[in-house]
């Protein structure tokens, strides 16, 4: 399978699926390769956390104070 398929799947998660929903989707799609499904879900989860941290940092620089810093 090409990496472009994996990138497309990452994009799906970043559009609003929860980690559990995405992992269930990925396990269905990559049934023959469950380790790939879990790795994709972990990567997408990490990207989501980095995006949240980036937004928090950007708001702090603008003087907007969030209640707490998101976990990275």
TrEMBL record:
Protein name: Uncharacterized protein
Source organism (scientific name): marine sediment metagenome
């Amino acid at each position: 399978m090409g990496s472009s398929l994996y990138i497309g799947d990452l994009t799906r998660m970043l559009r609003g699926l929860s980690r559990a929903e995405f992992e269930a989707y990925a396990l269905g799609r990559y049934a023959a390769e469950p380790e790939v499904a879990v790795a994709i879900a972990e990567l997408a989860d990490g990207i989501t956390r980095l995006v949240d941290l980036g937004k928090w940092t950007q708001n702090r620089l603008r003087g907007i104070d969030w209640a707490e810093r998101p976990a990275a």
